[in-house]
Amino acid sequence: MTAFCAALRDTRLPPLALIELAAAVVGSVYREVADAHCGDQPCPCGWHPRLPEDLEALQTALALSATPTLQPDLASMVVLGRA
Ligand SMILES: [Zn+2]
Fold it and tell me: Is the pTM of this model over 0.85?
């Protein structure tokens, strides 16, 4: 967040524009890693990129991270035990 806020201040770009740039960086890193696992001398680790499945996994991770978590409402909770 510190780097993000500094970039907001320094560039004066709207927050979503910076987030889109960050997403583009992640996509670019994926492309480079995937390319390193293809071709004549691929990385020997055994991973093979599958673009549709990999994009779905990345989109799911993004959606899970971006979705607000529900905060429990103390007034509606069931009381368990007595203190
Ligand atoms: Zn590898």
Answer: no
Helices (H), the chain: 2-11, 15-36, 51-66
Q: Report the separation in Å between the CA atom of 57 and the middle of ligand 1, taken as the mean of its atom positions.
A: 18
d(CA 30, CA 4): 21
Q: How far is the CA of 53 from the centre of ligand 1 (A)?
A: 17
Ligand 1 centre from 47 Cα, in Å? 6
Domain extent listing, the chain:
16-58
Per-residue model confidence as pLDDT tens for the chain (83 residues): 999 999 999 999 999 999 999 999 999 999 999 999 999 999 999 999 999 999 999 999 999 999 998 877 888 888 888 87
